[in-house]
Specification:
heterodimer; A: mainly alpha; two-stranded antiparallel ribbon; 71% helix; B: 322 residues; mainly alpha; ABC transporter involved in vitamin B12 uptake, BtuC; 14 helices; transmembrane helix (chain B); Branched-chain amino acid ABC transporter permease (chain B); cell membrane (chain B)
Chain lengths: 295, 322
């Protein structure tokens, strides 16, 4: 069989798109782990909330021209505020305790948020309309691509650059990196580590909410979208190295492409490639591609 | 025999008599539904107790045990529906297959250091198994599920649950006996030391990975038996048995009843099954109830109901001796 390069290219672009959504999610997951040493199992729930909020906001402002953009700004903000509340009211109580209790607390949130979404939005599949300006197609190398693909890739790229600037140049970023290295030292220097944790968790859940809004126009929103995404995110952070944002970016790119190109080989079971890769990484480099720590 | 040993025997004997007489009492008093519910409690109790070998005794945070429960169930059901395999062989193949899946998932999961890796990996692998069963329609019938699984007449639940009740009781009792022996054996004690301090145990020459893997496979095997018992009870099967929430429920059972007491998960299973039957008859928000219970336990009673009772009893015993 002769390989059709244009199909290959098309899958490459869609893989890039997938990778960027995964990166938006995994960066939040890994940021929280790097700083607070807690895995947020409910990260997918914040993503789902972002998507459903985008649905409500776009329907509410359906007559306003920029409804999608309003949702793009407001929904992640609301999700981030909710995240701050969750950190302040719940997570704060269990930092020093057993790992099992920490995991179970965030795990419990999957159940709670899942049912809250069911209560508020019902079980029907929901659709978010694409903003008109992004709903066209562009021709590239003999193939037509949705403009929206490039929007997703752009958002992912912007967030990667933004996170880099935040961590490298701002005081907040320096504190985050310092707290990841040595929490008690930062505390001794007189900084409010508790407040820092709340801010980090808000940023992480904001990223989750943003991923949800961005993905919303391309899928049908359903109650299982929280678990669907979190499993892939786990694989990404394991491959990249827990706690490392750039590891998450690298791993997201690899898994996104592996999945999209894998579809050409094994249509239904492309997920299996991701698990295969994870297994190989675990044998060869158990701490992930880029080791530990936020840098 | 001292006084506490004697009272333990009396309690055990009374429980056995009660369990054997239970169907006769139920038939007089109320509907068969409660017999069905009791069998369900037994199945979940077996599942939760075998899971507790991994979490409570081994200290390994598996978030993917539904995979083994479902593997046992699916293997047995598919053999019965698609082949001329005799029932006993299918019933044995279920747990064996579950143990094999446990070996594969366990091999990778125990290899890696760090509790968070273990938790995320087991959840991810079990979800892979769920997706596989869901999508491989030609083999598993996907989300249509398998209906009308043939069950031998002697334990059929068509007319009454009584026969099946005794069958499940005997199977569960045997499994409990074996699990109890495992927990009390030198192997079980090593598992305990690994939970308490893995580093020290390694220094005195314990092969941590090997022991953890063995415990994981044993646990998968018995979870598979629970899955087979479920198949015979329901005579139908859907991918829902493999859902991630089942792994969560079994954790909550252990936590609720107390993970460090052998019968703790059984108590948890009884509470959860009854609560589930009560809540789901009134509302469709079982998950919310589950999540809130979990949050409350984590924040306020991390030792569980069984742990609380256990602590009280020990405190009282201490006061008596003092």
């Amino acid at each position: 069989m002769e390989l059709d390069w244009s199909i290959f290219f098309a899958q490459f672009i869609s893989g890039l798109c997938r990778a960027m959504v995964l990166f938006l999610m995994a960066s939040g997951l890994t940021l929280v782990f790097g700083v607070m040493r807690v895995i947020n199992f409910a990260h997918g729930s914040f993503y789902m909330l972002g998507a459903y909020l985008a649905y409500s906001l776009t329907s509410l402002f359906a007559t306003t021209p920029g409804s999608f953009w309003i949702a793009l700004i407001l929904a992640p903000l609301a999700v981030g505020l909710l995240g701050g509340l969750v950190e302040y009211l719940l997570l704060r109580r269990i930092y020093g305790k057993e790992h099992l209790l920490q995991i179970l607390l965030t795990y419990a949130l999957i159940f709670i948020f899942g049912d809250l979404v069911k209560m508020l939005w019902g079980v029907e599949l929901r659709i978010v309309n694409m903003p008109p300006i992004l709903s066209g197609f562009v021709a590239l190398a003999g193939q037509e691509f949705p403009v929206y693909y490039f929007f997703i890739i752009g958002v992912g790229f912007a967030v990667a650059v933004g996170l880099w600037l935040l961590l490298r140049l701002t005081t907040l970023g320096k504190l985050v990196r310092a707290a990841a290295e040595h929490r008690s030292m930062v505390e001794m220097l007189g900084y409010n580590v508790n407040g820092l944790f709340t801010i980090v968790f808000m940023i992480a859940t904001w990223l989750g909410g943003l991923a949800g809004v961005v993905i919303a126009p391309t899928v049908r929103l359903s109650l299982s979208m929280d678990m669907d995404i979190i499993i892939e995110c786990f694989l990404v952070v394991i491959i990249g190295g827990l706690g490392n944002i750039w590891g998450a970016l690298l791993a997201a790119l690899i898994t996104g492409e592996l999945y999209s190109l894998g579809i050409l080989v094994l249509e239904k079971y492309a997920m299996a490639f991701l698990f295969g890769l994870t297994a190989v990484i675990m044998i060869l480099r158990p701490s992930g591609l880029l080791g530990r720590g936020v840098n | 025999m001292d006084a506490t040993g004697k009272s333990k025997w009396i309690v055990g004997l009374a429980a056995a008599v009660l369990l054997i007489a239970f169907p006769l009492i139920i038939e007089r008093l109320t509907s068969q539904y409660y017999l069905y519910l009791t069998v369900k409690i037994m199945i979940w109790a077996l599942f939760a107790t075998s899971f507790n070998l991994v979490l409570g005794y081994g200290g390994m945070m598996s978030f993917g045990h539904a995979a083994f429960y479902g593997a046992g169930a699916y293997c047995c059901a598919l053999l019965l529906v698609k082949t001329a395999c005799p029932v006993w062989a299918a019933a044995l193949a279920g747990p064996a297959f579950a143990a094999a899946i446990g070996l594969v998932i366990g091999y990778f999961s125990v290899k890696i250091k760090g509790v968070f890796y273990f938790a995320t990996l087991t959840l991810a692998f079990s979800q892979l198994f769920y997706i596989l069963v869901f999508k491989w329609r030609s083999l598993t019938l996907g989300d249509d599920g398998i209906q009308g699984i043939p069950v031998p007449e002697c334990i059929s639940t068509l007319e009454s649950y009584t026969n099946y009740y005794y069958f499940a009781l005997v199977v569960t009792a045997i499994c409990f006996y074996i699990l109890r022996r495992i927990v009390q054996s030198p192997f079980g004690l090593i598992l305990n030391t690994l939970r308490e301090n893995a580093e020290r145990s390694t220094f005195i020459g314990v092969n941590a990975q090997k022991h953890r893997l063995i415990a994981f496979v044993i646990s998968a095997f018995f979870s598979g038996i629970a899955g087979v018992l479920l198949v015979f009870l329901e005579t139908s099967l859907s991918p829902d048995v493999l859902k991630w929430s089942n792994s969560g429920e079994v954790i909550l059972m252990g936590l609720l009843g107390g993970m460090h007491v052998f019968l703790g998960p059984t108590l948890g299973a009884a509470i959860m099954v009854l609560l589930n039957s009560f809540v789901t008859s009134y509302s469709e928000y079982w998950g919310l109830c589950l999540g809130l219970t979990l949050v409350l336990i984590v924040l306020f009673f991390p030792q569980g109901v069984g742990g609380l009772v256990h602590e009280r009893l020990e405190a009282r015993a201490k006061r008596k001796t003092a």
